[in-house]
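YM 10:42: Cadmium, cobalt and zinc/H(+)-K(+) antiporter sequence, as discussed on the call
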Amino acid sequence: MDLKGKGEFDSGHSHGVENLGASSYYFWVLALNLVFFFGVLIEGFKSHSLTLISNAFHLIGDVVALAVSLFASVLARKPASLRNSFGLVRIEVLAALATSVLLIVTSFIILYNAGSRLLLTNYGSIPSPSSSDLTWFGFIGVIVNLISVMIVARAAGEATLRRSNIVHFIFDALGWMVAILAGIVALLINFKPIDAIASIIISILIIGAAIQILTNVTKILLDSAPNEVDPIAIRDEIVQHFTQVEEIHHLHIWSLNSAQTALSVHVVISGEPSLHVAQELAISIKEYLRATFGIDHSTIEVECHLCDQPLHSTNGEHHH
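YM 10:58: structure's back
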């Protein structure tokens, strides 16, 4: 291991996220949405439109999410060190967690306000939002969010974070389409509850998307095996593919982030091979895992007999 200054080291693996271009992408999308946010918020309060105000709150959620994404993309470039052996690749997963929670909280606030407005029996006391405001801002909102999707989709870095931002923008675009519809309805029939109903629809859509992202992020933070990886299949494949392998145990598979999967396993091999032969087998298993299952980081511990662990189960799994 080649020790370097300030605790950095080269472990033979690239744990850092290659996202040198992500910061600039997030910066321009942040600037675009920040300008649009102030325009929507000011007009929403001027026109007493709950639909515009709810979209403004969702916009500030996106702005904060982009600011966190920008900060996380910078931190994620830091190389691995002796203390942070995988680098800071999970900082962007934490950012996706924070943005999802923020969207859920703001959406529930909007739901509460919209529900309170719908419960009012005297709709005459509710100021009517301008139908032209809803329609024009709706069209602008769709364009802004589609531009944001195209820019963020080109950014490198953690897929979960990128996906969470893209989902936010797509559902925000759908929300602005609802705003356009609300504006048209308000123009044609002057149906005042449409503003509150539209904001409820927008909030429900965003809550559903945020919960899905939150579920995926939680699995990563709990070190669960990725959904696309079957631990039992990997265990069986190693034993069947390599005739020298008698059994495996202490099999652990987890996600560093949505793009990187790690594995560690104890492999019992037959006979009494030399250290060189055992190392060649370990390298072959690593290459097989990379080619077959897309696992780039694997740690193989080769044994000539079961290690002295009374807690081993007979089916090759490890219980803690």
